[in-house]
Amino acid sequence: MISLPPGAGWFAGQTVAGLAEALRDGRASPTELVERALAEASRLGALNAFVTVDGPGARAAAERAGRELAAGVDRGPLHGIPVAVKDVVDTAGLRTTRGSRHHADRVPARDAECVRRLREAGAVIVGKAATHEFAFGPTGDRSLSGATRNPYGDGRLAGGSSSGSAAAVAAGIVPLAVGTDTGGSVRIPAACCGIVGLKPTLGAVPSDGVFPVSTSLDTVGPMARTADDCLLLWNALTGRDAPAPDVSGARVGWVAPDAVHPADPRVAAAARAMLEPLSVRDAAVPEIARLRWAYTAIQSGEVHRLHAARMAAAPDLYDGEVLARLRAAGRMTAEDAAAAREIRERVRGAVTALFGRFEFLAMPTVPVVAPPLGARTLALNGTPVDVRAALLAFTSPWSVLGLPAVSLPAALVDGLPAGLQLIARPGAERLLLAAARHLARTASSVPSPS
After folding, report:
1. Which CATH architecture has domain 251-442?
2. Catalytic member of 29, 161, 214, 396
């Protein structure tokens, strides 16, 4: 586990299991936990992790949770636990802006299905976490609510698009948050902010009530400080529970980062060092660099169709950078998308074969630590690179294949988190989280690269 960010809030020193035990033996109450979360949200407001903090709603939900627990009604380990929800996910009666001036005052009438499941599990929603506008960007600094700041460095990006969810958890404002991931929107900010973020198999969590980016790629995923906490949130989102599998003998295929995109060698070394407790061999994924283009081609057609009428009617309500990227997406053709799908099927066959040899594939989550706020180019190994392309480079290939992947903290590089990404076969989310837990426990003594 990497060290906490400066000034971290109370929840950064807690586990969900520990909080749940305290709630049941009378050492804490849901109301007390909510008041702590609200106080930390106020104290750490400069991070801009939240678009809307729902004090009245959270207090009312906490009181209900307390009454239920006192009456012997136990909804599980999330009962009475504060949670943040990304602002593209509908919450009944609570403003959901989607990070855009188009929806600045929008209040949904119904909960998204994932939110309904959270409430059924007894979780207390304290507010809506900031998102890149329409969840369409990996930097987390283009939004109605402004840029989210990284808790590890005031002048650094939190990553996107689930920027507020990652920052709120990393800073210890809440112990858990829900994000969404199309091409890396859970994993990128998780890596930048030093937490655990799971991108599940496509369709593993219903996306009803979640504003889409690309319907063939969008997923809903849990974010937490630890893999154990992430698993508890995953169980609530899926409505299923199962023991964590044993991964001590797992085989890992290391995918060379430079085969995909240039990487900071210190970030790559930190990620590779985390794998030392497992059996690791090199793994070659054919055409993996072309998967990055395939992701863009498939996503572009879907996101442009979704926004075409809105762009024509009210282009001035978009952030300028987001509008430019949406217009660029419209230049991808149907032929491009067809070629991308052919690439995807070829590589999917090769990766399926690799999973006959390995339980996991692994590489850094992103090739760099969190860039400066507003940066769009970055010097990497003496060469300028595009920040947005770099942030998406190691996550989008697995998204286009529909595979589950988890990002976990590896080390601090220049005081900023670097992440390790594990990828597994479809449906292996619990296996991924078990591996993340195993590595965090056995590799916690690995020093940060200098």
Report:
1. Alpha-Beta Complex (3.90)
2. 161
